[in-house]
Amino acid sequence: MATENPTVLQGSSQDMKQRNKPVIKGIQTPKKEVIRLDSIRMLDPSRSKLDTHETQRIISVLDEMIVKLELSSLIPCIIDSLDSFADMLGPEITNDLIEHQKLSSEREHLLSSFQEEDSSRAEEQRDCLCLLEQHLKSSVRNILRLLLANPSLCQALKYEVCGRWSSAEAFIKAFREFRNFMHERLLTSPLEEKEKIQFMEDISLRIKKNTETLTALKAELAATIQSRDEKDNVIKDLKNSLQDVANNYKISVLQIRQEGENQQKEELRASQARCARLQEDIQQLRAQLCTLVLEHRESELALRKKKCKVEMEIEKWIQKYDADMGEKQAEYEELYALYSEEKAQVSLLQEKHAVLIQEYSQIEEERRICQKKKERDLEELTTMTLAATRIQAFWRGYLVRLLFKSKRKKKKKGGGKNPNK
């Protein structure tokens, strides 16, 4: 860890000093409040707001996903009471919900009639099921798009709809917790995350060592108290015996006291030597700590420079992306303007085409009527010509027959006058 907490080490060294004092005075408790405050300060994120576009976009995407999940979980309840929400939703959303209900019913019917015995039929049903699921997804996206386009309607639906399914509520709650977790993680930099992990490992190791030391000191304290009690009992017995035979055993009592004092001095010297060794260890550990702090500060500075360089590159890429998207948007707007103009021209030409088609139809109808009239007139002319020809032929025949009759009559009259000829 680059920055170790010196207060914790000071507290630990004071603990060791208190434990190494004479046993009669007892053991003082460590300053837990200082450790707790340092731990809370280390575990809390150093930032309160997101300072990069990527993190803000991630959180905005998660928030938008929560809104969509809440709205999509209300769709089954709205469909169940569609008649009561029809006026509020409007005809377009109502029609989409009815279509979504039909697709859901078809999917449930297909699932209920799904048979695994016939492999060819099962494959067809799987294809139909995949197609229905695609339509359902498209329907849900369309409904969400229409609902999100009207924020007041979304708020009204959240208050009006009775409730959602428990599974959906649990999923939304879990997703909110995931969003809060992601927000906390995004507020924490990778370096701070590593520092927290290393800090927790150091704390765990320090607690384990302190627990082992405390157990050993407690055992030593119990042995010392037991030896002290045994010595007190011996002293009491000696005092009782001294009361009976004070004159005979004064020298032995003085020797025993001297031995006890010498043993106490030896134990005191041993304890002082142990404290000195521990103090030397603490000084060595502090020196190591300073060395590690300097090393980690250099690595931290290098990492910060690398981080700044990466952030500058990311900012450049974002600016490039924004510029490219601006150019694409301008190109799209130009193409859309051309498309709109051509579409208007096509509409105008279609209108003119419709007018021309109507005029052409009228002209064709007039031509057809004229053609029929011409054909009828031609037929009448042909009929009249044929009739005239026949009348003329009949008239010519009549005239010829009449001429022949007159000639025959003249011949008969001539024969009657001159019979000898």
UniProtKB/TrEMBL annotation:
What Gene3D superfamilies is this protein classified in? 1.20.5.190
Q: Where in the cell is it found?
A: Cytoplasm, Cytoskeleton, Flagellum axoneme
- Coiled coil where? 228-288, 332-366
Q: Which UniProt keywords apply?
A: Cell projection, Cilium, Coiled coil, Cytoplasm, Cytoskeleton, Flagellum
Question: Where does it mainly reside?
Answer: cytoplasm
PROSITE patterns in UniProt: IQ
Key word Membrane present:
no
Its family remark reads: Belongs to the DRC10 family.
Subunit details: Component of the nexin-dynein regulatory complex (N-DRC). Interacts with CFAP52.
Q: What does this protein do?
A: Component of the nexin-dynein regulatory complex (N-DRC), a key regulator of ciliary/flagellar motility which maintains the alignment and integrity of the distal axoneme and regulates microtubule sliding in motile axonemes.
List the PANTHER family hit by this protein, alphabetically.
DYNEIN REGULATORY COMPLEX PROTEIN 10, IQ DOMAIN-CONTAINING PROTEIN D
Q: What is this protein called?
A: Dynein regulatory complex protein 10
Q: Which organism is it from?
A: Apteryx owenii (Little spotted kiwi)
